[in-house]
Design a protein that fits this description.
CATH architecture: 3-Layer(aba) Sandwich
CATH superfamily: Alpha/Beta hydrolase fold, catalytic domain
Number of domains: 1
Radius of gyration: 17 Å
Strand content: 15-25%
Length: about 260
């Protein structure tokens, strides 16, 4: 595993790259880039993304985990971000991967969780370097989803001022930017294949979004979509059995993608 910092505008994004023990022919290896959710990190709740990276790397796929600005070990303040900044930072990570000699010709797969799922889709809709998408419990309505989460745990009557949420300063421009994006409407712009996985007992992001995303992707003329719901799993798939099912579903789908790409 390699630790590094990736430049993105004025910020530096902390990142970790997991290299597989045995590499497939270079051009056939999809590089999986993990996009974490709202005020999360590249480690993930209960080490979700660390476990994912180890699991996929053990199956021959390189994985990049990174912290958005103001999260984890990256520079900046999260509340200074707008949603477009998160998209920009995701593209900066793709820039880095494509600049390396090892992976410059490899397919790119974005794996986004929660708000990171929305960011991954919005990035893929405008960046043709993204070949496929994996969306875990993805947000479909960023403004509604994040304001609901914030208001549930914070006494907030309105969002037209800075608020303190879990030690993060979130300003009006952050929330305003969320209201400008509608991922379900952007799904038609992405022509690649998609996997959507959701927990049946997700109390943060409605499981109904899994069906809405599937329907939106099915309307496209190109690209297929597979949806999977793991009964009783929560938002972060935080049990041994649910996480194993999640990783197996994801790995199996990726292996099929590898066959299609190669």
């Amino acid at each position: 595993m390699k630790f590094l910092q990736i430049a993105s505008g004025k910020e530096f994004l902390a990142a970790s790259i997991h290299y597989p023990d045995s590499l497939l022919p270079a051009k056939e290896i999809p590089v999986v880039i993990i996009c974490h959710g709202f005020i999360s990190t590249r480690i993930g709740i209960d080490r979700l993304f660390v476990q994912t990276a180890h699991y996929l790397a053990s199956r021959g796929m390189p994985v990049v985990r990174f912290d958005y600005a103001g999260c984890g070990e990256s520079s900046g303040e999260y509340g200074d971000n707008r949603l477009e900044d998160l998209i920009y930072q995701t593209r900066s990570v793709i820039d880095y991967v494509k600049s390396t000699e090892s992976f410059k010709n490899n397919p790119i797969i974005l794996l986004g969780h929660s708000l990171g799922g929305a960011v991954a889709l919005l990035t893929a809709a405008i960046d043709t370097r993204v070949d496929s998408l994996i969306l875990w419990a993805p947000s479909a309505n960023p403004y509604d989803d994040i304001t609901r989460i914030v208001k549930t745990q914070t006494k907030v009557s309105n969002l037209d001022r800075n608020i303190d949420y879990c030690g993060y300063r979130l300003g009006p421009h952050f929330f305003q930017s969320l209201s400008h994006y509608h991922p379900l409407q952007e799904a038609k712009k992405f022509p690649g294949n998609v996997l959507v996985v959701h927990g049946g007992n997700d109390e943060e992001i409605p499981v109904e979004y899994c069906h809405l995303y599937y329907q939106a992707f099915q309307l496209r003329k190109k690209g297929n979509c597979v949806k999977e719901i793991i009964p009783e799993a929560n938002h972060t798939f935080s049990s041994l059995s649910h996480r194993q099912i999640l990783l197996q579903i994801t790995s199996d789908w990726l292996e099929k993608e590898l066959f299609l790409i190669s």
